[in-house]
Amino acid sequence: MKTSPAHAAHADHYFVPQPSLYPVILSGGMFLLAFGFIQLINNFGAGKWFMFGGTAVILYVLFGWFGKVIGESQSGAYRDWEDRSFRYGMIWFIATEVMFFAAFFGALFYVRVISVPTLGGMEGAHGFSLWPEFAGTWPTSGPKGTAFTPMGAWGIPALNTALLLSSGATVTWAHWGLLRNNRNQLALGLAATVLLGSTFLGFQAYEYHHAYTELGLTMGAGAYGATFFMLTGFHGFHVTLGTIMLAVILLRSLSGHFSAERHFAFEAVAWYWHFVDVVWLILFVFVYWV
Predict the structure, then answer these.
(1) Per-residue pLDDT averaged across 69-77, rounded?
(2) Could you give the angle at the alpha carbon of 148 between the alpha carbons of 143 and 150, nearest 5°?
């Protein structure tokens, strides 16, 4: 294939896009969203409208900005320099996500292994007890917390584990199809992954409803409730983002985007999805099972 003079000249230079107002607009949308949320929790009726406005602005920027980036990629503006830059950026992004979840797992470890047993045994160690009725065993809702039933591991959590592990296999299968220029395998693998991710979220929503309405397990159920919903909630948020990104990659694949040689957008989303899978396995063991 003959290379155009523009592409030949670009091969040795890093692509620099034209100045854009999208970052400024995005900042405004985030401000409206945060401002509306503050108004809402302080019982100002206009808060929800500010939040809706901020969300609309953010969605506008996401569609416009990512659409522009996709257009630049399809036009051939991105070459080896940009590909390496994107890979480094995605690696560092996932590294920050690892630290994000490490902080919450660290909090769970501290509360469960150090704080709760220490508080429960203070009478023997120091000759006094802050809360005589506090057993100091896990799971706990605190010395005077409300009664609740812990979430069992075998049921929906185990099913969701199977779903996410299966989704990791289907996205890998889709990648193999892309590497062999098998577009049908690529599309089917991505569609299956999106379906599995969506099913996971549906089961998690049902699990939350069951926890609140039947088990008494809420965010207010002491240290156990707080750590349970913090870890599973943030993971569910990441699954939601990953499912949306996979759906976008599926639509792009159906439109003929990506080739066996150049498909970093697909790889980036696959990396993110595998990261979400690994976090869930750790979460399943230490939040639900052990």
Answers:
(1) 76
(2) 105
